[in-house]
Amino acid sequence: MRGLFVTGTDTGVGKTTVTAALAWGLRERGLEVGVMKPVETGVPAGAAWPPDAALLAEAAGAADPRDLVVPAHYPDPLAPWIAARRSGQPVPWDHLLEAAAALAARHPRLLVEGAGGLAVPLDATRTMADLAGALGLPLLVVARAGLGTINHTLLTLDYARARGLAVAGVVFNGFRGSDPAEADNPAAVAELTGVPVLGRLPQLPPGAGRLYARLSAHLDWEALAGPPGPLGERPG
């Protein structure tokens, strides 16, 4: 399986918009991609598609069945294990893996967006880190731009390494220009960890429209989709 597992230093850091920006950018470069949100919580009752999964599918332009793109979804806006337990429907671990394999068979690369951070539980014994490991995809870590992100990002990267997960890079999201820490945080994280920074994305106003398309321009496409990159064409 080839692609990226998009995780974050926390919830609400912009994983969905970054994953959509990646999918859009790949399409713009003529590179086909599948998208997946294995578990989505906080899904409104009666929604035809869970909103995050719908945004990813729109950005990728992929016509995959909903049950492959988002195999599990729950109404409560909670961690997957808690939301699943409240609903009486456990997270279907085997089905998540089967759906990812089916999407990988349909597409040459796959973007998988996790829920929350790596330690978020799927059940009493498995976390998002376990899912990333089972899929065998390198991580793209989405981090906040401002003050506090060095601590959160280093903790996430240390945890990933302790779990034996490969990290392709970090994307910093939400630059506002008003926080003096923003100017130095990306270089500091790269220097302290040796992990490349693959994007510096601005904070765009709500309702900006096609948010993912506008953010796509701020990703390092040479590193992401060049021949050595995790999303590029393989030589040969």
TrEMBL record:
Record: residues binding substrate: 41
Protein name (database record): ATP-dependent dethiobiotin synthetase BioD
Residues that, per the record, bind Mg(2+): 16, 52, 113
Enzyme class: ligase
Major site of localization recorded for this protein: cytoplasm
Subcellular location: Cytoplasm
Presence of the UniProt keyword Zinc in the record: no
Active site positions: 37
Catalytic activity: (7R,8S)-7,8-diammoniononanoate + CO2 + ATP = (4R,5S)-dethiobiotin + ADP + phosphate + 3 H(+)
Binding site for ATP: 12-17, 52, 113-116, 203
Summary of subunit composition and partner proteins: Homodimer.
Family: Belongs to the dethiobiotin synthetase family.
Native organism: Candidatus Hydrogenisulfobacillus filiaventi
Enzyme Commission number: 6.3.3.3
Biological processes annotated in GO: biotin biosynthetic process
One Pfam family of this chain: AAA_26
Example of a GO cellular component annotation carried by this entry: cytosol
GO MF, one example: dethiobiotin synthase activity
InterPro entries: DTB_synth_BioD, P-loop_NTPase
Keywords linked to the UniProt accession: ATP-binding, Biotin biosynthesis, Cytoplasm, Ligase, Magnesium, Metal-binding, Nucleotide-binding
Domain of life (superkingdom): Bacteria
Gene from which the chain derives: bioD
Biological function: Catalyzes a mechanistically unusual reaction, the ATP-dependent insertion of CO2 between the N7 and N8 nitrogen atoms of 7,8-diaminopelargonic acid (DAPA, also called 7,8-diammoniononanoate) to form a ureido ring.
Entry-linked CDD domains: DTBS
Pathway(s) where this gene product acts: Cofactor biosynthesis; biotin biosynthesis; biotin from 7,8-diaminononanoate: step 1/2
Magnesium recorded as keyword: yes
Cofactor: Mg(2+)
